[in-house]
Amino acid sequence: MRINLSKRFTMDSPLKMDNTPVYQVDLDEGILGKGNKNGTILVSDKITDPEERESIIKHERIHVDQVKRGDLDYDDENVYWKGKTYPRSEMNEGSPDLPWEKEAYSKTDPFEKY
Ligand SMILES: [Zn+2]
Fold first, then answer.
1. Ligand 1 centroid to 50 CA: how many Å?
2. What is the per-residue pLDDT for 7?
3. How far, in Å, from the CA of 12 to the mean position of ligand 1?
4. What is the pLDDT of residues 79-98, one digit of tens each?
5. Residue 85: CB partners within 8 Å, gap ≥ 6?
6. What is the pTM of this model?
7. What pLDDT sits at residue 56?
8. Which H or E run contains 81?
9. By CB neighbour count within 10 A (0-12 exposed, 13-18 middle, 19+ buried), where does 97 fall?
10. Domain locations in the chain?
11. CB environment 55-86: b (16+ within 10 A), e (fewer)
């Protein structure tokens, strides 16, 4: 039997949804999901309910979208939304009152806070 070595890369490829790679990883306590600037989404490996996981992915996908269209950016210190700077030190991260969260929550089922 011939083994095609390039095939081995497909075995470990992440779950693809709308071309957004989703990785199940060990996230910090209290963090359920993360949308990365590089377009990938991280979901906590502590989530066992597939519906909850799906809901988190939907929410984070909106943040990825916000980054892609240029409305959202962030670094370790700040979050930037439509040209405005929001220092992380003064914000309640994940709060539905934040404009980027407001959009994400309005477009998804309010399962829980992410
Ligand atoms: Zn969010």
1. 18
2. 45
3. 27
4. 999 999 999 999 988 888 99
5. 78, 79
6. 0.76
7. 92
8. strand 78-81
9. exposed
10. 16-107
11. bbbbbbbbbbbbbeeebbeeeeebbebeeeeb
The residues pairing with 81 across neighbouring beta strands, listed in sequence order, are 72, 84
Alpha-carbon distance of 96 to 109, in angstroms, equals 13
- What is the Cα–Cα distance from 112 to 43, expressed in whole angstroms? 14
CA–centroid distance, 60 to ligand 1, in Å, is 6
Task: Give the distance from CA 108 to its chain's centroid.
Answer: 13
Tokens of 6: 């390039």
What DSSP designation does 14 have?
P
114 vs 111: CA distance, rounded Å: 9
In tens, the pLDDT along 8-67 reads: 444 445 555 567 899 999 998 888 999 999 999 999 999 999 999 999 999 999 999 999
CA 13 to centroid of ligand 1, rounded, Å: 25
Q: How far is the CA of 3 from the centre of ligand 1 (A)?
A: 43
